Protein: Cytochrome c55X
Organism: Halomonas fontilapidosi
Amino acid sequence: MPFPTRLVLLVICWLPIAALADGSLSAEREQELETLLYQDCGSCHGMTLRGGLGPALPKSRMNAYSREGLAALILNGVAGTAMPGWAGLLSQQEARWLADHLQNDNPLDE
Ligand code: HEC
């Protein structure tokens, strides 16, 4: 087959892989992360994110961070406080998903 055709096929085959690498998690994993957010993070931050042992995580406050900054905070935790780092349990992409959720799909819209 001529070279340009091969190139087009290569790009078409590569696109879904690029999409996967670039931030789309499976719906199932997103569901798991949502459960983790309200149950595990919620055990300190409150099941509705209104705070408890940890501070409330309202949308306005979450948007004071960049998405990358928030993801890094989730992965690394806050040294010297009860906020643990989640790098052992979450990938960078998953932490970014949680950060995005806190900034845009946050039930605590204050
Ligand atoms: C064991 C309790 C605990 C758990 C579990 C926990 N956190 Fe925290 N988190 C804290 C504490 C305490 C702080 C406040 C740290 C400080 O004083 O700066 C905090 C701070 C934060 C902040 C910064 C808040 C701000 O106002 O700047 C974010 C964002 C955050 N946590 C997100 C999460 C997420 C997402 C999870 C789950 C993946 C999680 N936390 C799980 C205790 C916890």
The mean pLDDT is 88. DSSP finds five helices and no strands in the chain. The domain at 26-104 is CATH 1.10.760.10 (Cytochrome Bc1 Complex; Chain D, domain 2).
